[in-house]
Amino acid sequence: MNPDYRHHQILLEALKNPECLAHYKDAEWELLIRLARRVKLLGRLALLVKEHGLWESVPLRVTSQLASALVQAGRLRQSTLWELNRISWALEGFDTTIVALKGAAYALAGLPYSEGRLSVDLDLLVPESDLADIESLLKIKGWRNRPISMYDEHYYRVWSHEIPPLVHAERETEVDIHHTLAPLTSRLKIDTGLLFADALATPRTKVKLLCPVDMTLHCAVNLFQNNELADDLRDLLDLHDLMVFFSHQDAGFWIHLIDRANQLKLGRILYYGLYFSQLIFRTPVPEGTTGRLYAKPGSMERRIMHWLVPPALFPQHPDKPRKRVALARWILYLRSHLIRMPLYILLPHLAYKAARAVKAKSKAMMR
Amino acid sequence: MLLHNQGLKVAMGPFNVRIQTRHQPLIKQLYMLYSHYRLVQDEIIEFHVRINTERSIKNPLRLNVRFLIDGQSPFESFPEEQALAVLEWGINLAIAVRVNHLLLLHSAVVEKKGAVALFPAWPGSGKTTLCTALCHRGFRLFSDEFGLMDYQRGVFYPIPRLMPLKNESIAVIRKHLPQAVIGQPIPNTHKGTVAHVRPPKESMQLSGNAAKARWIIFPKWIAQAETRLEPIADAEAFMLLASNAFNYEVLGASGFRAVEQLVASCDCYTLTYSDLDEVTTALHHLVDES
Amino acid sequence: MRWLSDNFHALLVADWDGEYTVFQPDSGKTHFLNHMSMQMLSFLSRHPVSTMEICNYLSRQSGQESDKNFQDNIGKILYHFDTLGLIKKES
Questions:
Q1: CB within 8 A of A328, min separation 6: which ones?
Q2: Binning pLDDT at 50, 70 and 90, where does residue A227 land?
Q3: B9-55 pLDDT, tens per residue?
Q4: Which among A148, A254, B8, B200 could bridge A152 via Cys, Cβ 3.0 to 4.6 Å?
């Protein structure tokens, strides 16, 4: 794929062919750092520089920023895993299944480059029938709901698929406990029973992980169903990493992936996952893989997504944002909410969200 | 002007910063207060910040300013008169959030005889006022806000910048240091009235010279108090210092070891004071006798 | 029911003349401990012990009588250390 813009190229080449970093000039490094930071890939970049033996030859003003990102990633990873440790401790004796998702899961699964991943919250999947008890037990041991408005609380409990986030009184890690992987009100219904049935144990904790194909599918669901896609290049890279990692471990991975996607009715989403991962990161997906998917998006929709998605995923140039990209993102933002909620709920919700947009952005920037 | 296109590129201690704005009043203030900063050419810049103006939604006749870093706005907009304060706070925030290859102490730092004294911040410390006085009277300014410690080398890096005086301190310093260059007072900020002091030229010129810490002094300004320096227990100094660092926990074991090294190698005190002349003399005495 | 501290050896300890600042690597947290708390942790690192044994040991070490007050305090510290992950119940 030829990126539209020079700055996309600077970032993409660094991620795909890190050897080229040996030839980057100061101006390119400066821009690369700013772009990588925007899409939360500074830690990844740091690991790539180290892996290719370039640390000593890269300018000091660059390595100090890379080092800072690694320190921060390490700390976030530690906080997340410790939070998981404390949650297991708090739920000691209560018979349930806790499945770690996203960043914590990648760390526990030993996904390459997970030490450089900037992941802030802890996401867990538990059986719906145990959710109320789990929330009570955690609150007894010191967790509290993040203070949120009644409106938001309603959104979380009824419309979304989470209880409001929990935070322990003495720590900062936010814990999001899910009982399904897609919003209750969306058309997508994922059979959580199947996910639990195939979940795998971890060596040193009581926590489980989704099996490889489920972890991969969840990543795709998160990217194409739940999110607005703005600056989410990192999440697509996660998807690419997962597919490369698991396919190396198991030659039958691709077949299982398609079968599972069909079984869970996630064909459309996986289609997009495979399409964009190949398009942008050249993921080695075997020929004919997507042919076996039952539910593929129509060609019109595919063309629209092809036009909309990459500009949304890639970071804007920090000094020269383009209107066309803003438009693409706006459309995707609407789409993501449309998928999550019926229109009659969506419009009042969006009006409320618009009034609070700045707060969310500044919080995101702090991270 | 420079600021419109390329932006004003200056070195702030170990970091290079590019500032862009079209707001004329801010440009004038920067011309006066930033005059001693080293201008940067052809070097990598770590912080790209901008002050934009926009119409207030509530009152379209008023102009507001907004701080942006790498094109993103971390906080809400403010009345235009606060432009300089907003710029300085924004840069502080950017440093505090991004820098993790150094231990960042929230403290004033001054140097004499090749060694550094740290004045950790806490409410009522008056550290900025104290620091302003000291760096015009025989001490070199490292910073009134950030103790930048390279924990591998065990040294502090200077980052002399504008010192924001608040409320009554402005008049106190004007009287105490008639030679100090102070910007226009900015009323009604969330910290009250703020006025910025230009850092002394010599401190700026020596900002490449790092130094190790010798003294850790926890200051407290109390009206009419006599100047008193009292030793403080090491364990207490440790906990106070650790809780006073922006990124102590982020640094994990390295942060622990760095603070341990500081407390073990420095003389730690609490300081109560009210009179700037008296406290300046006392601190010179402390340093000269060590 | 017995307590133990199986990660004691991993702690980074700075000894300031009988007061301790302690870094706990798995949580990344730093704690301030007095002499008795430190002794308690060290005692628990050898092998699992019951609350009563802890009280008796610390009573001997400190010269304080192991009355109800003393035992209640020990209980509170144990609860707090358990929450912090410095100690755990023997499984």
A1: A307, A308, A311, A312
A2: low
A3: 999 999 999 999 999 999 999 999 999 999 999 999 999 999 999 99
A4: A148
- Tens digits of residue pLDDT in B109-155: 999 999 999 999 877 789 999 999 999 999 999 999 999 999 999 99
Residue B242 lies in a domain: yes
Identify whether residues B90 and B109 lie together within a single domain.
Answer: no
> Distances in Å between the alpha carbon of A209 and those of A98, A195, A348, B28?
8, 10, 37, 59
Q: How many distinct structural domains can be found in chain B?
A: 2
**Which residues of C lie closer than 8 Å to B, measured between beta carbons?**
12, 14, 16-17, 19-21, 23, 25, 28-30, 32
Cα separation, A258 vs A267, in Å, equals: 8
Check pLDDT > 70 for residue B217.
yes
Q: Which two tokens stand for residue B3?
A: 């600021």
Question: Residues of C with CB below 8 A from B252's CB?
Answer: 23, 25, 28
Dump pLDDT digits (tens) for A29-39.
999 999 999 99
Q: Are residues B234 and B263 in the same domain?
A: yes
**CB contacts, 8 Å: B235 with chain C:** 16-17, 19-21, 32
Backbone φ, ψ for residue A30 (5° rounding): -60, -45
What is the pLDDT, as a whole number, of residue A187? 66
Residues B67, B167, single domain; the answer is no
The string of pLDDT tens digits covering residues A269-319 is 999 999 999 999 999 999 999 999 988 888 888 888 888 888 888 888 888
Average pLDDT over all residues of chain B: 95
User: Quick one: pLDDT band at residue C81, thresholds 50, 70, 90?
Assistant: very high
Residues B43 and B181 in one domain: no
Same domain? For B281 and B152 the reply is: yes
Domain end marker among B44, B63, B98: B98
Total-model pTM = 0.91
**Is B83 domain-assigned?**
yes
pLDDT at B61: 87
Quickly tell me which residue has 């990543």 as its tokens.
A219
Within a domain: residue B2? no
Do B209 and B138 reside in the same domain of the chain? yes
Are B78 and B157 found together in one domain?
no
CA angle A348, A349, A352 (to 5 degrees): 90
Structure tokens at A360: 């969310």
* B44, B48, B249 ranked by CB distance to A26: nearest: B44
Q: Do B107 and B63 sit in the same domain of this protein? A: no
Nearest-by-Cβ selection for C23 from B233, B256, B263: B256
pLDDT average, residue stretch B201-216: 97
B75 backbone dihedrals φ, ψ, rounded to 5°: -140, 180
Domain span at B159: 103-289
Say whether pLDDT at A97 is over 90: yes
The b/e string for B78-97 (b: 16+ C-beta within 10 A; e otherwise) is bbbbbbbbbbbbbbbbbbeb
Which of B98, B115, B144 delimits the end of a domain?
Answer: B98
Q: Are B233 and B270 in contact (CB under 8 A)?
A: no
Asked whether the ipTM of the predicted complex exceeds the cut of 0.90, the reply is yes
Question: Which is nearest to B71 in space by CA: A365, A359, A235?
Answer: A365
Find chains touching chain B: ≥3 CB pairs under 8 Å. Answer: A, C
| Count of beta carbons in the 10 Å neighbourhood of residue B36 | 17
B1 domain residue, yes or no: no
pLDDT at A365: 47
Q: How far apart are the first and last CA of chain B?
A: 50
Q: How far is A102 from chain C (nearest CA, A)?
A: 20
**SS3 for B115?**
strand
What stretches of chain A show up as alpha helix (H) in DSSP? 6-16, 26-38, 42-51, 60-90, 102-109, 131-140, 150-154, 192-197, 212-221, 233-249, 253-263, 267-281, 299-313, 323-340, 343-355, 357-366
